[in-house]
Amino acid sequence: xxxxxxCYDNAVVESFFATLEWELIERSEWRTRxxxxxxxxxxxECWYNQQRRHSSxxxxxxxxxxxxxxxxxx
Length: 74
Known about the structure:
The chain is mainly α and 74 residues long. It has one domain (7-73). The protein has three helices and no strands. The protein is extended. The mean pLDDT is 91.
């Protein structure tokens, strides 16, 4: 954040956490913190970054978008 109490500074993070809450947390129940931690890790690393398409990235996953950028830079 660049300025105190500026909601636009953290809009990307707020959007991510809203998506995480809607797509995973609201639909799940865990018995332990370790179960929750593992589920959140798998959501982020296996689904959100690798497979989930993002309209802001031209409907590519973040991993696909990064690979595309790196191949263009080479």
